[in-house]
Amino acid sequence: MDFQLTEEQLAVQSAARDFAQTELWAGVIERDEHQKFPTEQIKKMGELGFLGMMVSPEYGGGGMDTVSYVLAMEEISKVDASCSVIMSVNNSLVCWGLEKYGNEEQKRKWLPKLTSGEIIGAFCLSEPEAGSDATMQRTTAEDKGDYYLLNGTKNWITNGSSASVYLVIAQTNPELKHRGINAFIVEKDMPGFVVGPKENKLGIRGSDTHSLMFTDVKVPKENRIGEDGFGFKFAMQTLAGGRIGIAAQALGIASGAFELALKYSKERKAFGVEIAKHQAIQFKLADMATNIDAARLLCLQAANDKDSHQDYAKSGAMAKLFASKVAMETAVEAVQVHGGYGFVKEFHVERLMRDAKITQIYEGTSEIQKIVISRELLK
Ligand code: CAA
Ligand code: FAD
């Protein structure tokens, strides 16, 4: 593994940092408080190429590697984790899944719009009774010849109301269990598709999370992704890469909180000196920086595994498990370094603390990452 970033990777990192600092920072508190979807900001992210970073230029993407994607995700997440989850779902679940497993027609139809930000996508696996236990899909897709009849409910869907295209996982042949599951491209305007109310969340409040209801939605056969019964493998393969994106999001939340704590510790005085002069604060900063560097190495290792066509299910799960723990711990300590000021919105760290929690839950909880890692170890 080469620890030196290339000029291109450094340029992506710098562009993402500039964008986050100039375009995202100013309104982030208001968007969080009012659960306001970052419509304008996402449009600009599309224009700048942040929504289809790894997609081939043939389909309108940036043709970049996963390392560049991790670097950009870190920078955006330092400032606004709502924007970065929208970015992550669009890049690593929707675009990647479509480019890797979609047919030529599906790719030509959807990828240019998804990479430019003209539309955004959603990935729909979770259900009211099938979260971690994802094989237990209750949503059904009955094979009716030239179409499938889709019925059921999906839960917690990121980009739930703002997306135009949805990759939906559903059970076609229950007797085949997970091998009877399919993945479909579902369009928002298909009759029988209803978006439920928006969830009122603890964190990532700028992103819109909804349940989705499907009642006798006719999905044309050509909208199935891959062979009959490929849907569960599609979901698992796609999530393996998605977890690298969420690991990078967690890394960004941690480094954002750390940078704020470092700066504040040099400004705030107590007992006649800057609080950074107290060893208790210095030790907090040392722990934060060490954990963040370790998390970054795991993220880059997983990204490098993916870029060099090695198996990345384990390294991606390790990166997500560790980086999300570091995000939570670092954000809590950053609030502590800020004292009472950390408890109010103007200082940003309370938001980062609330945002950090979701990284231990979605795209597989920390317990699920441990299952994935240990199964790989015991293979
Ligand atoms: N690649 C390809 N196939 C895979 C795979 C991978 N990485 N991991 C598992 N599979 C296949 C297995 O080979 C098996 O297929 P076969 O029987 O044909 O060989 C099939 O999947 C079932 O695997 P398991 O027997 O291991 O299934 P399980 O039920 O014991 O556990 C699990 C699987 C890992 C726990 C899985 O259910 C899981 O990942 N759960 C978490 C779900 C999740 O991450 N949801 C995220 C939703 S999206 C989201 O959250 C987005 C967002 O927030 C922004
Ligand atoms: P459960 O599976 O019910 O788990 C409850 C607890 O039990 C957890 O602590 C879990 O780790 C633990 N547990 C369960 N099984 C085991 C086990 N075998 N061993 C040990 N512990 C176990 N899903 C999508 O499909 N698309 C999205 O875009 C999406 N976005 C989301 C956005 C938000 C804000 C949220 C909150 C969720 C989102 N999700 C999405 C759903 C998310 O992936 C699930 O919430 C997650 O996978 C956990 O499922 P669950 O909520 O049903 O919890």
From TrEMBL:
<dbReference type="InterPro" id="IPR036250">
    <property type="entry name" value="AcylCo_DH-like_C"/>
</dbReference>
<dbReference type="Pfam" id="PF02771">
    <property type="entry name" value="Acyl-CoA_dh_N"/>
</dbReference>
<feature type="domain" description="Acyl-CoA oxidase/dehydrogenase middle">
    <location>
        <begin position="122"/>
        <end position="217"/>
    </location>
</feature>
<dbReference type="InterPro" id="IPR037069">
    <property type="entry name" value="AcylCoA_DH/ox_N_sf"/>
</dbReference>
<dbReference type="InterPro" id="IPR009100">
    <property type="entry name" value="AcylCoA_DH/oxidase_NM_dom_sf"/>
</dbReference>
<dbReference type="InterPro" id="IPR046373">
    <property type="entry name" value="Acyl-CoA_Oxase/DH_mid-dom_sf"/>
</dbReference>
<keyword id="KW-0560">Oxidoreductase</keyword>
<protein>
    <submittedName>
        <fullName>Acyl-CoA dehydrogenase</fullName>
    </submittedName>
</protein>
<dbReference type="InterPro" id="IPR009075">
    <property type="entry name" value="AcylCo_DH/oxidase_C"/>
</dbReference>
<feature type="domain" description="Acyl-CoA dehydrogenase/oxidase N-terminal">
    <location>
        <begin position="6"/>
        <end position="118"/>
    </location>
</feature>
<dbReference type="InterPro" id="IPR013786">
    <property type="entry name" value="AcylCoA_DH/ox_N"/>
</dbReference>
<keyword id="KW-0274">FAD</keyword>
<comment type="similarity">
    <text>Belongs to the acyl-CoA dehydrogenase family.</text>
</comment>
<dbReference type="InterPro" id="IPR006089">
    <property type="entry name" value="Acyl-CoA_DH_CS"/>
</dbReference>
<dbReference type="Pfam" id="PF00441">
    <property type="entry name" value="Acyl-CoA_dh_1"/>
</dbReference>
<keyword id="KW-0285">Flavoprotein</keyword>
<dbReference type="Pfam" id="PF02770">
    <property type="entry name" value="Acyl-CoA_dh_M"/>
</dbReference>
<dbReference type="InterPro" id="IPR006091">
    <property type="entry name" value="Acyl-CoA_Oxase/DH_mid-dom"/>
</dbReference>
<feature type="domain" description="Acyl-CoA dehydrogenase/oxidase C-terminal">
    <location>
        <begin position="231"/>
        <end position="377"/>
    </location>
</feature>
